[in-house]
Amino acid sequence: MKKLIALLILISVVYIHAEEKLGKAITVKEKTSVSKILASPAKFDGKTVLVEGKILGVCEDKGCWIEIAGTKKDEKIKVKVEDGVIVFPKESKGKTALVQGVVAPVKEEACSDMEMKDKKEGAEAGCCSKDKTKKAYQIEGIGAVIK
Asked: Helix (H, G, I), strand (E, B), or coil: what is residue 12?
């Protein structure tokens, strides 16, 4: 009986600390803060980065994007992935993500779709700058680990 209880505890601990790996393996070693990217996004345009942060939101339709928090209040960056290649679990909201991807401007049509969705929900645009002279940036995700 003691062995069974010990085994169940061990399984629980392993399950709780399990990481979910999605997409390609992470190869970048040095993390870049979300805050640093958002402060100078053009400097990172086209560069492959590794970011880590709390998942604030997950695409409810296809799991095709997540939003990762920066270190400052109300700071976040969207991680968009190719539909079906990586699917972020809806229950990953609130967990920590380690994501590798390429920093890129938000495509105009994606931005318009997001603005429409946000207007329907009564929220501010989630991916687009209100100042239309500025480009909005996101990370095009390649691989991720959900902790």
From this structure: helix
